[in-house]
Specification:
Strand content of chain B: under 5%
Structural class of chain B: mainly alpha
Distance between the termini of chain A: 42 Å
Helix content of chain B: 55-70%
Order of helices and strands of chain B: HHHEEHHH
Largest interface: A-B, 27 and 20 residues
Strand order of the largest sheet of chain A: 6-7-8-3-9-10
Largest sheet of chain B: 2 strands, antiparallel
Distance between the termini of chain B: 15 Å
Shape of chain A: elongated
Oligomer: heterodimer
Radius of gyration of chain B: 17 Å
Radius of gyration of chain A: 22 Å
């Protein structure tokens, strides 16, 4: 068994004539926790729904557990996946308890203890009809219902958007526990970047339908550098390459943001311009996100 | 025991390493003391377990921590790693430099800073 859980090969998706995904090639390995970020409309939901078979590639391919996800029909494979959609698809007219009972019917394996514990800990009133629940309570129920079959792959599309800070933290703890105890692979999108920094092992940043960043979180933070040049100094041509993420000028000071930055490159730039340069060492992921989109 | 700030640009595993180094350096963590398990620490801070293991493994490679099969990581017994005050202050040098730059920009003097630092530390002790 390969430990490749998801694989995209030159994945392209068009809606009408609009190209939403522009040739994405990457893979997800067992135990990865992928945090997906990007602006609204960048293609996050389309990307997350592709390995589930909800969205068929226009070109290229998408594989999940070694199976073409456009032909994902076997019950066994679906039983290995859990999904929390951005807008919950709960049935409004029935109680939470009844809903979980219906979901359970789909699966051979169901961990009732886990479901019971989470409903208690997260304060989900199961006896009430779903349409009487708050948006946050519905989101919790939606998350819980995706965990009962103890999936090997968990895909969550903005799972915490409606949760209060306390509920978000409880959810993140559960995510950490799930990722560590069963070597579950997790893909989740979020706009709350500090959450991603806690739990993600790898970051995907999607920009205009392409993966602008696909890198382990730690190395991304360690290898992104922001440098300001002294007034009037121009950037040497050798440094104007793909690693230059962003370049801007305030007054006569030029500021540059580089990926794959390290001490040697920093030294080389300093030598090339003939000045000692200060490097801002640690950019947060939020800074990096903003620089990529600037 | 530790303090994790995901918004800081410093990767979380490095934050943990720094904090453990400091506590060993001051003797708050003594040779033979056990560290919390990876899982316990990960769950209490809602941080990926791999982040914690990475911090522990790197400190083990540095000789500061010992790993025994099936037991908690412990602070290494090899040598006394307690450092004198001057060395411990040096560990704060880069933070102090930044603080001094920021204070100058804000036109605050050393007395203002001392007062603010004292106030903060007394608050933390409560």
């Amino acid at each position: 068994m390969s430990d490749q859980v998801v694989k995209f090969d030159n994945l392209r998706k068009y809606y009408d004539n609009h190209e939403v995904l522009k040739g994405i090639t990457t893979e997800v390995r067992t135990g990865d926790v992928i945090g997906l970020v990007g602006l609204n409309g960048a293609g996050k939901t389309t990307l997350l729904e592709t390995p589930l078979g909800f969205c068929k590639p226009t070109q290229g391919s998408s594989w999940v557990f070694g199976i073409d996800s456009a032909r994902l029909s076997s019950k066994e494979t679906k039983a290995r996946i859990g999904f929390v959609p951005q807008t919950d698809e709960l049935l409004a007219g029935i109680s939470g308890e009844r809903y979980l009972g219906l979901i359970r019917e789909f699966y051979d394996h169901w961990n009732s203890c886990l479901i019971q514990r989470l409903c208690n800990e997260w304060d989900v009133p199961l006896a009430r009809k779903i349409h009487t629940l708050s948006v946050g309570q519905r989101q919790k129920l939606s998350i819980i219902s995706a965990l009962g079959n103890e999936p090997d792959l968990l895909v969550l599309d903005e799972p915490v958007a409606s949760l209060d800070p306390q509920a978000r933290r409880a959810f993140l703890r559960e995510l950490v526990a799930i990722a560590s105890s069963r070597s579950c692979t997790i893909l989740f999108s979020t706009h709350i970047i500090s959450d991603l920094e806690r739990v993600a092992s790898r970051v995907w940043l999607i920009k205009d339908g392409a993966l602008a960043i696909d890198e382990p979180l730690d190395s991304l933070k360690e290898n992104t550098g922001r440098v300001s040049l002294p007034p009037g100094v121009e950037l040497p041509g050798a440094f104007q390459n793909d690693d230059l993420i962003h370049q801007y000028q305030v007054g006569n000071v030029q500021t540059l943001v580089f990926s794959h930055w390290n001490a040697e490159r920093h030294q080389a730039l300093a030598q090339a311009v003939g000045f000692e340069l200060e490097r801002e060492w640690w950019l947060s992921l939020e800074d990096i996100f903003l620089e990529v989109h600037a | 025991m530790f303090n994790v700030n995901p918004q800081s640009g410093i990767p979380i595993y490095r934050q943990l390493m720094d904090q453990i180094r400091r506590m060993i350096s001051s003797g708050q963590l003594k040779p033979g003391d056990p560290l919390p398990s990876v899982r316990k620490l990960a769950l209490s801070h809602a941080v990926n377990t791999m982040t914690i293991s990475k911090a522990y493994s790197l400190l083990e490679a540095e000789g500061l921590l010992d790993r025994q099969r099936g037991k908690a990581m412990t602070v290494s017994n090899r040598n006394s790693m307690i450092e004198g005050k001057r060395v411990r202050l040096q560990r704060l040098q880069s933070i102090i430099e930044q603080l001094a730059i920021a204070a100058r920009q804000l036109e605050l003097d050393a007395d203002d800073l001392t007062k603010a630092v004292r106030h903060q530390m007394e608050k933390d002790d409560e």
